[in-house]
Design brief:
The chain is built from two helices and four strands. The mean pLDDT is 94. It has a four-stranded antiparallel sheet with strand order 1-2-4-3, with helices on one face. The protein starts with 18 loop residues before the first strand and ends with a helix. A hairpin with a 6-residue loop joins strand 1 and strand 2. By secondary structure, the chain is of the alpha+beta class. The chain has one domain: 2-Layer Sandwich (Gyrase A, domain 2). The protein is flat. Helix 1 crosses helix 2.
Length: 115
Amino acid sequence: MNAPERHKAYLLEDDEARVEYAKDQKIPNAGLFTIYKEDHTIGNLVRMQLLRDSDVRFAGYKLPHPLEHRCLVKVQTTGAKPKEVFLRSISDLHSEFDYLDRYFREEVLRFKEAT
């Protein structure tokens, strides 16, 4: 059959990087991050977190093609380095998910104790 193998949509090869960065040569303080093996879920989360940052002038993402498993995130900052802002946003997302995980587990325990 002509269908691509499913595992190629989410598993990285040994020599494959998860994220690549390319500085934009035309726009100052801008760059393009390519996130491999991800889709709209990560793209939109990262974009929204970037837009919360006061150093971000523009943040957007796109998926080039449905059969290409990569997400392109473009960032322009007001003066900060795009890499630093991107890493800060990822760190903030990580903290938010840690908080959600802890809160969820506490509520599950509370529910089990109540029943």
